[in-house]
Specification:
alpha+beta; 9 strands; single chain; globular; about 290 residues
């Protein structure tokens, strides 16, 4: 295991990132990690917490997942995916909005669900599950607003400036939505063991995590037809994250959370994306080797 941790640290260094990782065997409880209890910015990874809270509300009868919602043009959030990128009014169910929130990280869908559930319910859910280091400070609309405000008149182009990056509240775990890698693997394990929600709701959550379209981070470390990866990414300037569960054909199930921060401010940085898959695989192989 010591050798695996050294390889993980080396991989982070070679990719030009600072990284924090925790991996957990969902069934045996064996674990490994590098900075597993370090406070990290969740970014869109926090949409997993929103999803679990939504299903808790549905299980309690306070939310009907088939409820139809209207999405007028003026309520679109910034974002290149899902409803956020559409040009015409949309009508959909809450559960379809949840699909867009998880599969393509649609910010508009996430905001619609938060309007229905509320941040207090999200934080109550993570508290109930014992995730003591996980807390949502902002909605996703509010989070994006802090970036716009902190970037100043230079707009999006200013985000290439390290001095601007340094002042973004959205990159400070003390001032934005936050967690730890260990909290996130604990949440995933609870979902996979049907401890987070009633079994039918747990199954729905697992299904949505399995429909994420991004293969360039965690899934890139497991290019096998018989290994299933279900996860949720999160991205902000210099930050690239993913949490997910790796399932092997022999029944092995491993929750992994990887959070990274790059030294470079480039929006496109393939080594920083790929190292999430590389380190996740090193960690899972170490757990499997026992």
């Amino acid at each position: 295991m010591t050798t695996a941790l050294a390889r993980i640290r080396e991989a982070f260094d070679e990719a030009g990132v600072t990284g924090w990782l925790h991996a957990l065997d969902i069934d045996s409880g064996a674990e490994t990690g590098v900075g597993g209890d370090h406070a990290v910015v969740t970014a869109s990874v926090h949409k997993l917490c929103v999803l679990v809270a939504l299903h808790e509300e549905a299980a309690a009868g306070r939310v009907d997942l088939t409820e139809q919602i209207e999405v007028p043009l003026e309520e679109r959030e910034l974002g290149p995916t899902g409803v956020a990128a559409m040009l015409d009014p949309v009508r959909m169910s809450l559960r379809d909005a949840a699909y867009l929130m998880m599969a393509v990280s649609d910010n508009t869908a996430a905001e619609l669900l938060l309007a229905r559930v509320g941040l207090d319910a999200v934080n109550a859910t993570t508290a109930r599950l014992g995730l003591t280091h996980t807390y949502a400070v902002h909605t996703f609309r509010e989070l994006l607003a802090t970036i716009k405000e902190d970037a100043g008149p230079g707009g999006a182009q200013a985000l290439a400036d390290p001095y601007v990056i340094a002042r973004l509240r959205a990159l400070d775990p003390a001032r934005t939505n936050r967690s730890t890698p260990r909290d996130m693997t604990r949440l995933l394990a609870a979902v996979w063991r049907d401890e987070a929600c009633a079994p039918e709701h747990g199954a729905a959550i697992r299904r949505l995590l399995g429909l994420q379209v991004w293969p360039h981070r965690m899934a890139s470390g497991f290019p096998f037809d018989d290994v299933h990866v279900a996860g949720k990414t999160g991205s902000l300037p210099t930050l690239r994250n993913e949490v997910g569960v790796i399932e092997y054909p022999d029944g092995g199930r491993y929750a992994v959370a990887v959070f990274t921060r790059a030294a470079a401010t480039a929006a496109t940085l393939p080594p920083a994306d790929a190292v999430i898959g590389t380190t996740a695989r090193i960690a899972v192989e170490a757990l499997r080797a026992g």
